[in-house]
Amino acid sequence: MQTIEKLNPTRGYSTIRTETTADNAAHWLFMHADAATGVRPCCRRDMLDEMWNFMNAITLGPAERNSGALRHFVLASDASAYNLGGDLDLFSRLIREGNRDHLLAYAQRCVEGVHHLHTGFGGDVRTIALIQGDALGGGLEMALACHTIVAEEGCGMGLPEVLFGLFPGMGAYSFLCKRVAPQLAEKIILEGRVYSSEEMHAMGVVDILVPKGQGVAAVQEQIRQHQRIPRSYLAMNAARNLAQAVRYDELLEITKVWVDSALALEEKSLRTMDRLIKAQTRRAHLDAA
What we know:
By secondary structure, the chain is an alpha/beta fold. The chain has helices at residues 45-57, 88-97, 100-118, 138-144, 172-176, 182-191, 197-203, 215-228, 230-243, 248-263, 267-288, and strands spanning 5-6, 17-20, 26-31, 71-77, 125-131, 135-136, 148-152, 156-158, 194-196, 208-210.
């Protein structure tokens, strides 16, 4: 079994935990490293900043890459949930303020990150999402941006934004349409229901489904298999980025539609959002207890 060694702790991350293999070929990023404090396991701006900073730090330019060297990036979570989605507390406040600039800045920051995952850090990285708890909204969008989704049985996965009159605007439709038919992608989004990881696997959204507790081993096995034929996976990355690319400008234009839709929400929808915030907060406190 491949050994995972901790990265230099002097990086000083407070919301994420990062680990790497001894050969520096596989990087693991665990969201919500501060879950024990009772914070909601969602896409808070401070965590996104630390995530993207780490991802940028391990990105290599074409001249820095070793010929034929394939790397891996695994996106996982230290919380009981994988990620419950966007920062609804921030959304609610910015929408009530009518603050389009800040809402768009948050959305654009999300788009930058998922696009980086989607393109494999420029081409030499295979990205893997390891889902060991509920993945909702923006959390699921991050997983959908990865090359491979490994999920344990019994996880909830869904895009519940329609519950408060919105839609998932940080890549869900674009990435889902690369995995399932557009009609099914729209159904998943517009129903707003939470599916089981078993259902998502049957639909083709989840690539690898494993029993609870076996997710890490499954990811490690995938990495071993990929490293047997690294040049093939590097070529597949290049082909994928040509034939199945989701363009950054596409993601950005869709997220602008999301921003405008969010700012048009009425108070009734915002009260629904507030109730979801309270439910997430209660869950986070219970998990931390």
